[in-house]
Amino acid sequence: MRSALIVLVSLVVFAALAPCWARWTGHPPQLAFPAFGLRPDGTPVPPGGRFWLGADGLGRDVLVRAAYAARTSLLTGFAATALATFLGVAAGLAGGFLGGAADAVVARGTEVLLAFPFLLAALAAAVVLGGGPLVVVPVVAVALAAPMARAVRARVLHVRELAYVEAARALGASPWRVMTGEVLPALAGPVVALAVLLLPAAVAAESTLAYLGAAQGTSWGAMLADGQEAYRTAWWTLLVPGGLLLAATLACAVLGDALTRRLP
Amino acid sequence: MTGFLVRRAAAAIAVLWLVSAAVFTLLHVVAPHPERVIGGPRASAETLAAIRADLGLDEPLFVQYGRFAGGLLRGDLGRSYQSGEPVAGMLADRLPVTVLLVGGGCALALLLGVALGVGGLSRPRLADTVVLGVAATPVFLVGLLLLAALFAGLGAAGLHLVEPGPPMAGHFWRRMALPWLTLGLVLAASYARLTRVTLAETLGADHVRAARSRGVAERRLVWRHGLRVAAVPLATQLGVDMGALLSGAVVVEKVFGVQGAGQLTAQAVAVGDAPVVLGAVLAGACCAVAAATVVDVAVAALDPVSRFWSPSPS
Questions:
Q1: Which of A103, A173, A183, A248 could form a disulfide with A95 if both were Cys (CB 3.0 to 4.6 A apart)?
Q2: Which positions of chain B have pLDDT values less than 50?
Q3: ipTM value for the complex
């Protein structure tokens, strides 16, 4: 768990320093340097010298681009996870607490969302609405809200029957007060643990969309799509973004798993 | 059982109708100016107006919906913005490849998952860690790393083992092996965990302990008593995973250049060809709903209690 936290914090620092990497190397992320970045035969230069982690197929700096991509991937991941958590908690709480028709809608809705090919829906949204962050974040969030809603609903069904909740009800607390003041705080632990597990899924979803060309911006997914064209002569174009993406998703997964285990 | 089948079919139809309504909304209400995609950036105002009229975009929405719904019932998904070909035909040409990819990936995932689940019984911590790591990794990254590993290990000769193209036109194994392996590996993770957990639970149950005390071999207990119980959660999980499988197929087709419906969709996304993408969404929804229905019926056959299917399981 500690190593996972260290990896995550270093990734965040690496991403936060993106403008500094650009200044220290003198290579802005979008600018190609065909004169220095490509060898005479047109292949990218390897790590070392002017390009600390090598250049990509167009002669752009892999290190600087990876740092800016880390910003896109991590920010999108955090935003989508936060939105998914909010949506999932709201839906799960409403379904589990109110029961009846609201519950039926939440239960069926999550089932459909879980079984639906998420990527196809995301691609459709991207092609019609464009692949900006304002499209990608909500689409990813809706897909990830389903498991959250399901878990929250199950937990609420259990918590609402506990003695202290019944006591609050007996003391005359309004349903709203019981829901927000008594039941909601009891969800904090499981919700945080599940949100940490949703984070790698959100980062993975964003990079997958970028890999398929459906999300804009410099992203690990887009770098990997470029790297797939160039890796035979330039392994760093594939392994640098791939390694960072792998580190991010694995660290989040290990952290989320450790948090889940510590729950009562 | 009849009542169950009727309820299940009604739910499937309701979901498909919702998806088609969403597709209509995206194509006809939200989509900003498809005539600009078709006509290109330098089309004149008259050309744009002619394209709009040709697509029927100036008619009232309910007329457009009537035409859309009528077309759907006849299996007409509209025409590609880019090539003008009927979308249904384009998809029908490519779907067999994707179905083959998903079917093989699914079978491999189940085989690997059950094997790893049984194997993981003795080392639960290690098994959990491996499952966790694989499940968190994006499918395309697994595919790319497999490609890179093949290249690193065997050089250019390794890449000859992967050949893009339609698998029906020869080189079947070369074209399908790595795509199947990638899809199978990623999805095996959840089955492995499910198998292990269910087995661990069942092997401590009274009837299994009784069988063990009669001297039944441990191997037979696992395969005969344990896996029979595990079949129900495994089948249920398979239904849930259908969406992930289809999403995975789109990605894997792009990574390995398999020319299936997913590759078609990815290329359509790149040029903004909305009817093709939305046709693929409809086809994907049909596949997912059909698979979920088959799985539910199979589970009902395996486990009579689940036949009392209701809209809100608790």
A1: A103
A2: 309-314
A3: 0.84
